[in-house]
Every structure is written in structure tokens, then in C-alpha cells.
Specification:
Elements lengths: L3 E5 L6 H14 L3 E4 L16 H11 L4 E4 L2 E2 L5 H15 L5 E4 L17 H19 L4 E3 L6 E4 L11 E4 L3 H10 L2 E5 L6 H14 L8 E5 L2 H4 L3 H10 L4 E6 L5 H11 L1
Helix pairs in contact: 1-2, 1-9, 2-3, 3-4, 4-5, 5-6
């Protein structure tokens, strides 16, 4: 069966609750733990929301084995060169367990109140297109000069360079970013609820891979269901996703985190 990780929602919870869940996942042998990168809850603007990347720094200290990252970091939330530096720091804190999930954004209600101009779909795509070149380039540890439309760099450097270089995984809802993942990234994450579009998305991925002279061999293709969709028949669902070509699953669960169910799940998969 393919490996299984969990994405822990950051709405309506505390860091202590997230840490307890992440430590349980670490002990039980799950593949990875992920958190959101949202500023405002879509349930209520007054609901507590933890910053995802700050939370990851704490979880990197609180765990020992499990891989961890944002699913996905919103490219409009911060300059990609700053995100590269944050990622390099998280890679050092975690001892090489960090993975960067990255997306184009698109939820205006959590951007506009903070004065963040995320732009239209075309602008967000172009910004992401520049980011997926900038971040790996900076992670090589050498000066980078790029004449980007949104992110021009002049002899920018990220030192020390992260060791090893973290995987870059794009989250996609449409074929444009799926193709971008195949061209530039190490992985692609697809939501299970969007499975009606899989033929289109996977064709775009393969086009991007072909353009880069690559195939799906060694490429990280992950599926993102809700935990509730997995629990009735976890072995059956993981086998189904593997047969569909996915290399791992990352199931989402919101707070309060069902720790007993997670322990039961681990026993079923042992």
C-alpha cells in the first residue's frame, strides 16, 4: 500500500492540540503531517487560526521522524524568496524532514483585509510560475538573478542552502498548475473531491513531465481525501489510489482531532 499522511486543520484549535496530534502520528509511523497556510477561517473571521509555517517550526522540534510541510503554502502570502529562506530554516530545524507544498492562492476574503493584492487568475498563475523557478534556484545556495515580472531578483542568495533540498510539491485544481508541476516540481497533490477532472489533470501533468524530459517515475503524486472518506475501508482505498497511479495519500482532518480513530486506523494498516 502507498504511504499515508495527515493534514491537520489549523482552524479552531491550539498549538498544544496540534502538537499532541502530530506527536501521535510520529509515534504511530504515519508518513507525514501537514498544516494549512490560511490567515482567516472561512467558518467565522473571529475563529482562532494558527499561522501554518510558524506552527511547523514547533512541530519540527516536537517530532523526530515524520515528514512535515504546508498543504499548501499560499504563494500570495509572502515573497517566494522569503518562503525559500523559511523553507531552508525549517529544513535545518527538522533535520531534513521538511517538504514544501505550494499553491497559487485564490481566497480573496483572507487577503483583502490585510491589504494583499493577490491579482486575478492569470496574475496568480504567473506569480506561481516565477516562484517555482526562484525557490529551487535559491536552494542551490548560489546568487540568483531573475528578471521576473513580479519577483525580479538581483544576486539574491539563500545561505546556508538547505540540505537536502526539500521536495517542492504543487497543489492543483486545474490543468495549468498540474502541467507546471510536471515541468518544474517534485510532486503534485490532487484533491479527491476533484476526481472527475483527473483525466484532464493527469494529462496536463504528463505534458509537463514530457516537456522537462521526465516521466512519472520518481515523481510524487499524492491524493488528498478527507479522513472520513478513508476510515470505512482504509486498506481498500489506499490500494485503489495506488492502482490509479498515486504514490501516497494525505488525508485531511479538522479539529477537534479524533486521536482514538487515528490510533485505530494505524492498527488497521499495521
Amino acid at each position: 500500500m502507498i504511504p499515508l499522511g495527515l493534514c491537520l486543520g489549523t482552524f479552531g484549535t491550539t498549538y498544544n492540540e496540534l502538537r499532541t496530534a502530530a506527536q501521535l502520528l510520529d509515534r504511530l509511523g504515519f508518513d507525514s503531517v501537514w498544516v494549512w497556510d490560511h490567515y482567516v477561517s472561512w467558518n467565522s473571521p473571529r475563529e482562532a487560526v494558527l499561522d501554518g509555517l510558524t506552527t511547523l517550526a514547533g512541530l519540527a522540534e516536537a517530532t523526530t521522524r515524520i515528514k512535515l510541510g504546508p498543504l499548501v503554502a499560499n504563494n500570495t502570502n509572502r515573497h517566494p524568496a522569503r518562503l525559500a529562506k523559511i523553507g531552508a530554516t525549517l529544513q535545518e530545524i527538522s533535520g531534513g524532514r521538511f517538504e514544501l507544498g505550494l499553491g497559487a492562492g485564490g481566497l480573496e476574503f483572507e487577503q483583502a483585509p490585510f491589504g494583499i493584492d493577490q491579482g486575478d487568475n492569470k496574475a496568480r498563475y504567473t506569480r506561481l510560475r516565477e516562484a517555482v523557478e526562484i525557490i529551487p534556484a535559491l536552494w542551490r545556495g548560489e546568487p540568483v538573478t531573475i528578471a521576473g515580472q513580479y519577483y525580479p531578483l538581483q544576486e539574491a542568495i539563500c545561505s546556508p542552502a538547505p540540505q537536502p533540498r526539500p521536495p517542492l510539491i504543487l497543489g492543483a485544481l486545474g490543468p495549468g498548475i498540474a502541467k507546471l508541476a510536471g515541468r518544474y516540481a517534485d510532486g503534485l497533490n490532487l484533491q479527491w473531491r476533484n476526481r472527475a477532472r483527473y483525466p484532464e489533470l493527469l494529462a496536463a501533468l504528463d505534458q509537463g513531465l514530457q516537456a522537462a524530459g521526465r516521466t512519472r517515475t520518481g515523481f510524487d503524486l499524492s491524493v488528498h481525501p478527507a479522513l472520513s472518506e478513508l476510515l470505512p475501508d482504509p486498506q481498500g482505498m489506499l490500494t485503489q489510489w495506488q492502482q490509479m497511479g498515486f504514490t501516497r495519500a494525505i488525508a485531511y482532518v479538522s479539529a477537534p482531532f479524533p486521536l482514538a480513530q487515528i490510533e485505530q486506523l494505524a492498527r488497521k494498516l499495521a
